[in-house]
Amino acid sequence: MARFTGRTAVVTGGGSGIGAMTARRIASEGGTVILVGRTEEKLKRTANELKDLEGTVLTCVADVTKQADIESLTSFVKEKTDSLHILINNAGGSQGSPILEMSEENWDHAQSVNLKSVFLVSKALGKLMLDTAKENNSLEDLSIVNVASLSGHKAGAQIPHYSAAKAAVINFTRALAVELSPYIRVNSVSPGFVETPLTEAGLKNERFEASIKRNTVLNRVGQPDEIANVIAFAASTEASYMTGSDLLVDGGWLIV
């Protein structure tokens, strides 16, 4: 049996990049995936690309930084599935700026999309998962995976707001793992530099791409499927004795 047969997962930031590839991995192994994002067109395009896989793919347009949208998402999940087994908090991003030149709006946006979203979605859907588990008196393996970043482990030039938010995601993951035990496992995955639509512009700069390779032991940029494979592992029953952990997938950057 495939790892995700009979299991339902919500993936935020599911319209492209790591989120879309994670959805592909789960759906290819029989899971039902609910893609969540702000742009309906991107969600529908990704869902169409995944339609021939073994699992089922649904879409829900929502801004995961807004409480009203989270409530709509929760209602959608309740309507479409009997039980939620997996939550992947993948939404995130930032606009670079030195600290001394950064606007308050830029700082607040980074905290909202990278950290507040994890809190809001985990609170709402975590409660849904926990209530179902307690109601059924079940210790069936349930999992939350938060996508953090290498930048949560080390300072990043031009992205102090992003680094701060992702470091907080790693620590929030640990706190949530304690609160939701023993019913729900909570782990985080910290990617290094990965080729996605968000990094596409930077990689067009040959000097920038060369610096990424130079600082990475594996001497290359990561691919979304390489991160998705680790997220899928953490979400699956194969990781059933792991909670409160952060899995660093950075090509060896941090050890240089």
Automatic annotation (TrEMBL):
InterPro entries: NAD(P)-bd_dom_sf (IPR036291), Sc_DH/Rdtase_CS (IPR020904), SDR_fam (IPR002347)
Single GO BP term: bile acid metabolic process
UniProt name for this protein: SDR family oxidoreductase
The keyword Oxidoreductase belongs to this UniProt entry's keyword annotation: yes
Pfam families from the UniProt entry: adh_short_C2 (PF13561)
Family: Belongs to the short-chain dehydrogenases/reductases (SDR) family.
Keywords, alphabetical: Oxidoreductase
NCBIfam families: PRK07231.1 (NF005559)
Entry's Gene Ontology molecular function annotations: oxidoreductase activity, acting on the CH-OH group of donors, NAD or NADP as acceptor
Xref: PANTHER family: 3-OXOACYL-[ACYL-CARRIER-PROTEIN] REDUCTASE (PTHR42760:SF133), SHORT-CHAIN DEHYDROGENASES/REDUCTASES FAMILY MEMBER (PTHR42760)
Keyword Nucleotide-binding: no
Domain of life: Bacteria
Source organism of the structure: Guptibacillus hwajinpoensis
CDD domains (UniProt xref): SDR_c
